[in-house]
Amino acid sequence: MTDKLIVEKQGHTAVITMNNPPANTWTEESLKGLAVVVEELNQDKEIYALVIRSNSEKFFSAGADLNLFADGDRSVARDMARYFGEAFETLARFRGVSIAAINGFAMGGGLEVALACDIRVAEEQAQMALPEAKVGLLPCAGGTQNLTMLVGEGWTKRLILCGERIKAPLAKEIGLVEELVPQGQSFEKAMELAKAVEQQSPTAVAACKQLIQNNRTNHWDAGYILERELFVDLFHTEDQKEGVNAFLEKRAPEWKNQ
Ligand SMILES: C/C=C/C(=O)SCCNC(=O)CCNC(=O)[C@H](O)C(C)(C)COP(=O)(O)OP(=O)(O)OC[C@H]1O[C@@H](n2cnc3c(N)ncnc32)[C@H](O)[C@@H]1OP(=O)(O)O
């Protein structure tokens, strides 16, 4: 395990705090650590949501540690691209809901980790960019794909091809973040959303997330068919019976995540 990430559990929510001062850059150690941590959380039936945040007031994350790329070593590039892929794809496959609490600079791979999450909350002074081309690189951790899905090709091209750095209010306006909050309040808001997730059936949430994310690769009618199949599959779960019966009995449901 790495000390570059601190993991705590609060109820059914896990909080992952990036802890690599000064700029929370990503290295082999922190990326491998993230993949392990998220996979463990994915196996933990008590965890329905995760929040990723930073321990720094200035940086959410400045992305890949550029010191690693100074020598132009292709094997380092190949390894880092793989570690980024494994970490952020594990995050995207997390069966619960992932929320990024963006409190400062989110640059390159530091924005891409937030793009791999389901929901983004940003503080008003936060700034975001995918500035890889400024240093002769490209966003290899899902940025070109995930940003396009969120904001469309036009803004994706403007951000990546022009290297533009935008402030959180504009990020909210174009749909890059879902929630804008005053400085110092991103974690609180992210936890509020996580608590809302905790009220929902975790098995139903996992199935809904699978359906929504399938849009990325499946054709529209395949999505409709899968929706119906997963709806019926939910009737194999205890949570389905618990959810409906709790409503009819006018009581709060007790989720089993099975
Ligand atoms: C697949 C993924 C690829 C990638 O992610 S490629 C990397 C993409 N990221 C970037 O290009 C961001 C690089 N960083 C910056 O542009 C600037 O930072 C900011 C604009 C975000 C902030 O600027 P300022 O307020 O002047 O802070 P500061 O002095 O630059 O940063 C504080 C310390 O943090 C180090 N640092 C910042 N980003 C990185 C980085 N990405 N890799 C390695 N070090 C970084 C600096 O050098 C410095 O360090 P010291 O205090 O020793 O001078």
Structure write-up:
The strands form 2 sheets. The protein has a 6-stranded mixed β-sheet with strand order 1-2-3-5-7-10, with helices on both faces. A 4-stranded mixed β-sheet has the order 4-6-8-9. With about 260 residues, it is α/β, with parallel strands linked by helices. The protein has 2 domains: about 190 residues, 2-enoyl-CoA Hydratase, Chain A, domain 1; about 45 residues, Lyase 2-enoyl-coa Hydratase, Chain  A, domain 2. The chain contains 9 helices and 10 strands. Strand 2, helix 1 and strand 3 form a beta-alpha-beta unit. The chain binds ligand A1D88. Ligand A1D88 binds next to strand 6.
Tell me briefly what this model is.
This protein is α/β, with parallel strands linked by helices and 258 residues long.
Within the largest sheet, what's the order of strands? 1-2-3-5-7-10
CATH class of the largest domain: Alpha Beta
What does the average pLDDT come to?
A: 95
User: Which ions and ligands are bound to the chains?
Assistant: ligand A1D88
The percent range for strand residues is: 15-25%
Q: Which overall shape is indicated by the principal axes computed on the Cα atoms?
A: globular
CATH superfamily of the largest domain: 2-enoyl-CoA Hydratase, Chain A, domain 1
Distance between the termini: 28 Å
Corresponding CATH architecture of the largest domain: Alpha-Beta Complex
CATH topology (level 3) name of the largest domain: 2-enoyl-CoA Hydratase, Chain A, domain 1
